Amino acid sequence: MKSWWMMMTGADTVLEQRAVALPEPGPRQLLVRMRSASLNRGEFVAGHGLTKAGAWKAMGGEGAGEVAAVGNELSGFRPGDRVMGRCQGSFSEYALIDAAEAMRVPDGLTWQQAACIPMTYLVSFDMVVLQGRLMAGEWLLVNGVTSGVGVASLQIAKVLGARVIGTSGSREKLARLESLGLDVGVCTRAPDFAPAVMQATGGTGANLVIDTVGGSVFAEDIRCLAFQGRFAMVGYVDGQMHAEIDLEALHAKRLTLFGVSNKLRSKAQRAEAVPSFVETILPHFATGRIEPQVDRVFAFAELPAAKAHMEAAGHTGKIVLAIDS
């Protein structure tokens, strides 16, 4: 089968399409004929540590397709089922998905839409619901709201009844998100958005902040937080890994700071949130209340072009590979 692999060097990444053996499913795994997979910036950023420098790795972390074979300890799936899930090596014609991570594709979704869900929306679910504890009527601030995780967080927040402020360097991209319920768009890439946040929230600040950008906006985010506010760190595309922290604000406002990463989690820990996500969020995809935002679809052979499109930061939502022939 065909599969995309990557090696990260000190300054760049090298992509290579290989012919590799078809994998065999373990006792509690599904072999899936991948129909579509989506890109996640963290795979291509050295600081995220998802790919070790100097080592080749099968690329792709989420996707959707048809079950081709079922592990001998499973009874809930059968060949032909439409499934999606987080998995290693999703930029391949076939991939293995642990049954604990597998979800059935909601009716009405295309393969490309389904490929946007497993990692991106579960990460946002972790930030917004499980750790962020966002409630109806509260304010969410998302730095880089037009990214895949940013859009997913916006959509989940609106389902919860929250209000959302988003920052982006593009007025055009912010305007596209108005139809998804973005309450306030702040056009900036600089750490200067606190006044706009305080004005929008009547001076109270944001109850939850999601930082997809990195250390360059961290101090400004702390200034934006309300009393007992929560802060989620999910990315650092700016490459700035260190930032000063206002200890007085942390102390006096009783703030909670947390990170969102699967890097050090076990398989069991990664799968813990799946049942709750399937029960509380996945039904909204079936009804159309949440619609995955596909920015652009690339052919399987065009992964280098898809990567370049992502790095140009011109997209809103998710970039997808169409793997089906």
**Which series of helices and strands comes N to C?**
EEEEEEEEHHEHEHEHEHEHEHHHEHE
Mean pLDDT: 95
Number of strands: 16
Q: And the CATH topology of the largest domain?
A: Quinone Oxidoreductase, Chain A, domain 1
Structural class: alpha/beta
CATH class designation of the largest domain:
Alpha Beta
The CATH superfamily of the largest domain appears as: Medium-chain alcohol dehydrogenases, catalytic domain
Uncertain stretches: none
Tally the structural domains.
Answer: 2
Description:
Helices cover 25% and strands 29% of the residues. The chain is α/β, with parallel strands linked by helices. It folds into 2 domains: 173 residues, Medium-chain alcohol dehydrogenases, catalytic domain (Quinone Oxidoreductase, Chain A, domain 1); 139 residues, Alpha-Beta Complex (Quinone Oxidoreductase, Chain A, domain 1), CATH 3.90.180. Strand 9, helix 3 and strand 10 form a beta-alpha-beta unit. Helix 2 crosses helix 3 and helix 5 runs parallel beside helix 6. The two termini are 12 Å apart.
Structure summarized in a few sentences:
The chain is an alpha/beta fold. It has helices spanning 111-114, 120-131, 148-160, 171-176, 194-200, 218-224, 247-252, 267-271, 274-280, 283-287, 303-311; strands spanning 2-8, 13-19, 29-38, 56-58, 62-70, 82-86, 94-98, 103-104, 139-143, 163-168, 184-187, 206-211, 225-233, 256-259, 294-299, 318-322.
